[in-house]
Amino acid sequence: MGKVAVVTGSTSGIGLGIAQALARAGADVMLNGLGDQVEIEKIRASLSAEAGVRVGYHGADLLNAGGAAAIVTDTIERLGRVDILVNNAGIQHVSPIEDFPVEKWDAIIALNLSAAFHATRAAFAPMKAAGWGRIVNVASAHGLVASPFKSAYVAAKHGVLGLTKTVALEGAEHGVTCNAICPGYVWTPLVENQIDATAEARGISRDDVIRNVLLAAQPSKRFADVDELGALTVFLCSEAARSITGAAMPVDGGWTAQ
What we know:
Layout: E1 4-7, H1 13-24, E2 28-32, H2 37-51, E3 55-58, H3 65-79, E4 84-87, H4 102-130, E5 133-138, H5 151-171, E6 176-183, H6 189-202, H7 206-214, H8 226-236, E7 248-251
Parallel strand pairs: 1-2, 1-4, 2-3, 4-5, 5-6, 6-7
Helix pairs in contact: 1-8, 3-4, 4-5, 6-7
């Protein structure tokens, strides 16, 4: 591939899977995210050695408006350029809207939507100047449909799709594409912990939680794998996908087909 990629929220879960897929395809990668610094360094060093590419880490706080832009500008300084930007970082909070904490709303909008804007804003001009760029926004099935008690998350993910379409139009004549991936439930350590907690809280089995709670709206009754999202991202960043832009691609086992 020979490209340089920034992947936000990439020290675990979906973001890490995407970063690993891009590195294995031959891209230098700048990781970003939270976690134990020793463990993050192990991830960084292991991926670099395995894939034979440069892998860096930037610990910017994306709740800060300048944090997302700083990742891009620092990557250009350290790795030479940014060809690929994957806006993945996000958080969730579930609450009835009349009780929804204002600070949670502000944080979710800041991280899930505004950080994607700030990173894209910083990367877009260099991509245009180079005549090539790939921006992939990790949205959600909740960017296409809603669920109760998730007002901030649903609003942010719908906003990400609007941002995706706008950036796609602005980049269309400059070799810069922008697409969104819209996962349903994806198997990650976070989801695994959620299964156990829900089973205990409701007094039901893990299988019941998986099939009748988490995957109730997902007709395939299976979780997507992070490898699937990584493979799709690699494809969207390839020359074969140069005419795909402004798309919102569900990876949700049929959830949004209903």
